[in-house]
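Because discrete structure vocabularies remain unfamiliar, we reproduce here a specimen of the format, pairing a chain with its fold in token form:
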Amino acid sequence: MHASRQPSGGSPIEGGHPISTMAPKGVRLRRRARCSGEPRSAAVQSSLRPTRTSSPCAAARCIKLVCCCHWNLAVHPLCSSTTEINRYTLPTFGKTINRSAMALPPKFAGHKLTFTSAATPAASSGDGSPSGLSFEQPHTLEVYLDYVCPFSAKLYKTLFGSVAPAMRQNPAWARRLQVVFRHQVQPWHPSSTLTHEAALAVLRLAPARFFDFSAALFAAQKDYFDVGVVGETRNATYRRLARLASATAGVDEDDVFRLLAISDKPAEDGSLNTGNAVTVDLKLAVKMARLTGVHQPHTLEVYLDYVCPFSAKLYKTLFGSVAPAMRQNPAWARRLQVVFRHQVQPWHPSSTLTHEAALAVLRLAPARFFDFSAALFAAQKDYFDVGVVGETRNATYRRLARLASATAGVDEDDVFRLLAISDKPAEDGSLNTGNAVTVDLKLAVKMARLTGVHVSPTVLLDGVVQGDVSSGWTLEQWTEWLGANIAE
């Protein structure tokens, strides 16, 4: 059965990366793809080993735990802080970016460093759902960096100092890639916390200068190594950081210090460990940095299944009523973005087929994705078990292609070509190769699994599962909840 809500479990936050549970836990394992029923061969067994690093940082394998690159949700083992721009970075980025035509909604649209102007929602369609969003950048590169890690400093210098300018000069790459900065606080160096807090303070006061300050922090990182801070108080270190922020990011030193300073007096309720004004930002890291565009500090992710009745109810209210109300409220529109996530439920095989059809439309006509999604939810009973059990898989695909043509304006045959399964072996003899959107679907499923989502619908705000959100909520209930959670 589907559930209308998912109770919140343990904290999804690991190392200061709240939007998902993707933060590295120990050393990541490289695994070769295999079907769940396929026995592991000796070769596969031997591949299940920790990724090796060339230069481990003190107390940690820094390349994997600190300078950690995620490419479309998968840890990228070839990225290294010692990578030379001409030997690997640009040539390999070009091959990787261009080898896939997939157009999944960016995982962190609105909390990213983009190389082109930000995409904005288009006008709503007749049923109140968004008529389209621009998914110009199908690939996401996430870099987890620590300001007091030498290897992070090397990677930052190359990626943001050399690769980013080169990408801006290549419109094809700029349209296909977004880069997301992630705060990877390493607690065995207490000053790591202080430097990241200072960066988050700058992100509050002057978001456009975040990267100026980050570059300055990396350049001066030795000043914040253990030896450089052990002889001064925490507030004294904060004062130095505030001074650096003022000199490099153009913010007022006292404003920064006020956000960072820790009081030596108990709080009014007697609390002795209340942190500072950016403690919550550090915990949740909702203030992701981006190079250009409007900064929306909150992200609402909705994991929906096209053959789930509760998902249909939530979609109709959220995209049919709440979204139009948000467009009429500039304060909310500036502070919140809503991201659709595919939650495929395998106990209903037709769930896979409907999501594949949506991904096919997302390839062919991204601006019409929500039109097709609305049509799928409206016609979901046609794809329940009873409605598909008597026809072949390709026959169901043909019906879905016809629906896509009628509601999203795409060519029926183009959609069917992306979905159809051949009844002939592949050239290499393979019998289970899937269709043209199988890779897209795998990435969508991986996203849900890495985030820890199991039921539909599931709603996350800034990476935290919202167990109180119900598929039965009315516009008024959504309005009240949003007002309480995304207010200025």
